[in-house]
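Re: N-carbamoyl-L-aspartate structure - here you go.
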Amino acid sequence: MTRQGMPSVCEKADLLIINGLVVTSQASFEAAIAITDGKIVAFGDVSTLPQAKEILDVAGLAILPGAIDVHVHFRDPGYTHKEDWESGTAAAAFGGVTTVFDMPNTIPTVATPDVLAQKHEIAASKAHVDYGLYAVLGEESIDHIDGLIETGIIGFKCYMGNTFGRIPSPSTGAMLELFERIAPTGMRISLHAETNSIMERRETRLRAAGKNAPLDHLASRPAVVAIEAVERAATLAEWTGARIHILHISSKDELRPLAEAKARGVEVTGETCPHYLMLSTDDYEHSRGRIRVNPPVREPDNQEPIWAALDSGVIDMIATDHAPHTAEEKDRPVIWDVDCGFPGVETQMPLMLTAVAEGRITLNHYVRLSSEAPAKAFGLYPRKGALLPGSDADLAIVDLKSRWEIDDNALHSRSKASPWHGREVRGRVIHTIVRGRFVLREGSLQPATRGTGRSVHDIQQMPPPRPRNADKTLAAVTRNAGT
Ligand code: NCD
Ligand code: ZN
């Protein structure tokens, strides 16, 4: 061992991956990778690298940093007929995803340290890949913020609008107080940015008018719902100095408030999902309830501006909002009865690699969007999200040329109902490696890796917090009252 605790390159490595194309956010080059104790120790010509206990020849394949999906719903505990930590993380492995952040809309909602601790136990016993857990940010968690952070979270999730799980959305007043409390902790708040009062009212009116077709879901949530929410969240983040992340950007229109907030220096990041880039209102007729998701898939003219926002950096990353439900829950005839969301953790990489093959984005840019940017936003970089000596050996090794068709019935998620069924893609994940361990090998899940995934909260290092208006917070003014 060297002084830094890194094994020296003279010692035998655990694994040597040879003949692959190494793809980083900056460059692609042919090199061998040496891995020891779950970490990348060296790159280079194989003649310059240490001997290894095991050699994997990946000639013809590309080696990407594993994807980090900051938005999945693994449903466990509470809705394990839809998904659980085993099936969800298996699906992730098949999709080249090595770290997932799980949302708190399970039963019970993750709002207290006890409930969070229970979810940690479940995840640790079943996960094939690494994970972070979100806690909800709302009235139900306001008195537990310190305990939740101590117990171990990757960030907070705030529901500005109703979605699956019917978690109540905080009032703007409550949101301000919550943001005031989170700002000094430096944690990031991920927002479901849809304004509840607008869409609730519209849905009531639509239902009363007897409207119940798939497109009526979109009619209940026009883009103004998202514009208003992004604008308001950005205002509160700017005032308090809280860090925020806008989940599932669905419309061209919310890009303006997002870009303006970034230009003002608000610490805001944004994600979009493959379905907002590649599906549109043209897909409602054949997908029916399967396409119902919050926010809704919108008109085709939203796609190009969202792609452009990925190019310009207004949107930082790709996530999936993997939201599994059963076929029965998706195929109900009245759209309002259909559960919102569909699986995506397994199909994100092939869908995006298809866009790479079509020349829409570069492979290096894809690595930035799927791995580097999420790691940076949530304080995991360069331990995760990078192919660098010292980084965790989290790898997706892919065949960029393989052509295949997405088949819902072949998904490894417990949910077999997605709007991607029948879609041709280019790019297949062959091996997925998490901290040097094969989770997927030659396209086969390694069952022994169940329970080897670890929570990443203890390696998270967010930059120092920058709270603002600290003298005007509710805590400060009530403390000063009467003195
Ligand atoms: C998600 C779910 O099913 O948990 N559904 C969805 O339509 N996106 C919740 C969410 O992320 O809004
Ligand atoms: Zn959401």
